Amino acid sequence: SGGSHTRGCGYITCAGGSGRFESYISNLGEKSGIDRYRNEFQAEIRAYTPKAGRIYSITAPTGIGKTIGNILFALKIREELGENRMIIYSLPFINIIEQTVSLLQKIFSTRDPLSILPYHHLADPDYDESEYHMEENIRKFIMESWTSDIIVTTFVSLIENLITNRRSIIFHRIPGSIIILDEIQAIRHEIWGAVERIFEFLPKLGATVIISTATRPMIFKTTEIVGNNVKYFEVMNRTKLKVMNAMNLSGFKDFLRDLLSDGKRTLIILNTIREAEEIYDHVKNIGDSCFLSSLVLPIHRLGRIEKIYSKKVDICVSTQVVEAGVDISFERVVRDLGPVDSIVQSAGRCNRNFEYDRGEVIVVPVMDEQNRNILFSKYVYGSFLIDQTMKALDGINEVEEKDFQRIVDGYFMNVVNLGNTDREGIMESIRKLSFDDLSGFSVIKDTVNVPFLILIDDKSEEIFEELLDLRRRNMDKFTKLAMMDKLFKKLSPYIVNARMNSGISMPFEKEFGMVVIRRDFLESWYDSDKGLRIREKGGSILI
After folding, report:
1. 144, 243, 249, 308: least CB-packed within 10 angstroms?
2. CATH 3.40.50.300 occupies which residues in the chain?
3. Helix, strand or coil for residue 356?
4. Share in percent of the chain as helix, strand, coil (round to 5)
5. 157-184 pLDDT, tens per residue?
């Protein structure tokens, strides 16, 4: 029947999921100084008694283990309020879905999609309907697969499911569910107002909402469950933030050359891919270096992150792809100016586990000398957020991590008071039931997400050929669909998604809604260091 609270009992709840979770936690033990605080943090969550149909917040510093805390609280809600409520775990970026899913699979020791299902707006392969005439069957198939215990999804999928009629396949699962919104401030501020109203409505359907963040924007009225979270912000005083004067890209290159001569392990986070590639070319020979961006294939990205974990990388140049969900840690982080909450996320990649005495975070507003010295940050975040950030950082030379919260609060207060948080009139359309207006709503503006399948080796070519072969076969449609789905999952390490301006044409074959780059084109379209090669004016492709 309709709500997820009436479902039968799932693997994670009935096969001792909570017990598995607890044994995973106790195996973690206390390996470093920070683990004591992580354990205290979890104890506070355990001690809290939740009620149904509320909006809760978990506000705590980066690196304290909020993912585990979120799941712990969700399981607690299930225990107190009825075991078989579905958990919907929602994240800002596609690239952290896989990491979160693999952590959850490890915790609950299961790979069964009926227990944990990754789902996002690019997860539905583009089947050719004229060939199958089975759109309804596909919808039914996907709908019925939303019976998993835990769904891990993106804000885009969740919010567009709730607001538009384009993908309303999960609405029937919302009543009674537990919805975790991890780092909600990553949603563009122009729709905060609408998002707030929608999530405030969900408890009326019996859903429980958990907002988990290091920097909660002041848009939700929530009940904070970590009573003394100020304590955690004070003890997790791992870094000191320095703000530099603006410099152009050439000046920034000179600055980095001097800075890196001391040999400290350094992560450099930039706003656009063009800027990141130029800086990488400039510093890559100074020490063992690596490059990370959303245009690098997941199979390569994971290898690089492993190298960082094992401290084999001295210098990493990256776009904002490392700001969420990637637990890497460096002695120093240099960040091109970004919104205050992005700076705080970047600082969370510095001295994350107290490996160093005090980490150093340096913020440098970098200007594009090729375009009237416009700040690179404005290409990605627009003028409003960057101006509010400059205001929030004005007069600050150095600030310790324990004092970040004061800056964050002032910044969000200004963004909410001065910015229009329902710029697109979504609430008005909802009030008037103007579903035509709502059907065009999109969480990400003016760009199209183009998946590129890059066949870089024998393995990827074999899987792809198998997929083409399967499509031609005459067999039971649901069996075929299930088999195709398996092959798509095997191909996912070879797919990058490029957000591109609408209307760009591609000189390639398209299969299953993906642009396919075969080996004969690799040289001109995929760089083994920097990933997919695409250029456009201003700042190259967006992340």
Report:
1. 144
2. 4-233, 237-396
3. coil
4. 45, 20, 35
5. 888 777 665 555 566 778 889 999 998 8
3-state secondary structure of 64: coil
- Which DSSP string do the residues of 325-350 spell out, in sequence order? S----BSEEEEE---HHHHHHHHTTB
**pLDDT tens digits, residue range 321-366?**
887 767 889 999 999 999 999 999 999 999 998 899 999 999 999 9
CATH of 237-396, one of 3.30.70.20, 3.40.50.300, 1.20.210.10, 3.10.310.30: 3.40.50.300
CA separation for the pair 414, 440 (Å, rounded): 29
Give the whole-number percent of the chain exceeding pLDDT 70: 79
- CA-based nearest residue to 455, from 494, 410, 403: 494
pLDDT digits (tens, 9 = 90+) for 92-109: 877 778 778 888 888 888
Helix (H) or strand (E) holding 354: none
Higher pLDDT, 442 or 275: 275
| Architecture of the structural domain at 4-233 | 3-Layer(aba) Sandwich (3.40)
